[in-house]
Amino acid sequence: MADLTLNEAKKEAASLRKQLKEWAQAYYVKDAPQVEDYVYDQNYNRLLELEQQFPQIVTPDSITQQVGGEIDSEFTKVVHEVPMLSMGDVFSKEELTEFDARIQRQVGHSVAYNVELKIDGLSLNLEYVDGELKRASTRGNGLVGEDVTANARYIADIPQKLPEKLTIEVRGECYMDKAAFAQLNQERDEKGETTFANPRNAAAGSLRQLDAKVTKQRNLSTFIYTWVNPPANITSQHQAITKLDELGFHTNQTGRKLANLDQVFAFIDEYTSKRDNLLYGIDGIVIKVDDLNLQNELGATVKIPRWEIAYKFPPEEQETVVHEIKWTV
Ligand code: NAD
């Protein structure tokens, strides 16, 4: 990298952007990835590195400046007044230590983190008016998503009506658990249909159906973890999740409020070993500054909030082997 000239960096970045856009379109829009996530991540991180080294080569349409893929589906469009962002990621405890050091430098003291499992699904936005579900939408490109209200009405754990007449917007992950995924792929295989690459793509392909009755047959679930602009008495992420749970949303009960990085590392170790025994897929651990005022203070870039980070698990051995076999036959 140190030996690269500006022109070489420009050329390499342009070719990486082209390739990454193609993969992102297949992944986000067609729900049919062409490569494994770690391959995408390696190329994405190489582009990030080049853009960090040569900031003058960053273009506004670079994939590092945009969320998700292009919206070119037939769903009605939904404008997200509060953008649905992506998330920064780290792949080692050293990088996580750097994240913590940056937060401490920015806010001037140590902070508590709410640490949650990173559910391997797709983001879902739910809007309630006077306690009734009015609209559900996907993240799309972060600013404009797709209206999937009819589909969301067929997901059993999404409350159609809240116990209080609240007008609120909440966000979470729509996912397919491992058993539903195995059954769906078996059925598709028996019918000679193409199978889904992983539960994330199965969930996305099942939610983003123009015929909502298909969604009904697919056994999707949700974990809700974000309250957009919560009332003033909710001051932390941990509190928000507790209240969302009381309101009847399906929340993930493994999340914990932790006082320091050593405890975060212990949580990561715990779920790295428990991961395979969970009923649903996770691809990492999300570390969020717990205090909502501090979250606002830290803010976000055009693509990622500065107050949270995903610690990504290394690719699973088995997946890598399957991938290589597919490519060699
Ligand atoms: P991301 O999936 O890495 O992280 C952000 C998302 O995490 C959020 O939008 C949210 O939906 C989700 N999430 C799950 N649990 C959460 C929790 N507890 N709290 C908050 N958010 C939670 O980011 P992204 O921008 O959606 O996509 C990047 C990922 O997609 C990378 O892992 C990349 O490998 C993969 N991808 C793969 C391909 C491919 O071709 N294989 C192409 C594009 C992207």
UniProtKB/TrEMBL annotation:
User: What residues make up the catalytic site?
Assistant: 118 (n6-amp-lysine intermediate)
Q: Which domain of life is it from?
A: Bacteria
**Any idea which positions bind NAD(+)?**
37-41, 86-87, 116, 139, 173, 288, 312
Family assignment from sequence similarity: Belongs to the NAD-dependent DNA ligase family. LigA subfamily.
Summarize the protein's role: DNA ligase that catalyzes the formation of phosphodiester linkages between 5'-phosphoryl and 3'-hydroxyl groups in double-stranded DNA using NAD as a coenzyme and as the energy source for the reaction. It is essential for DNA replication and repair of damaged DNA.
Q: What is this protein called?
A: DNA ligase
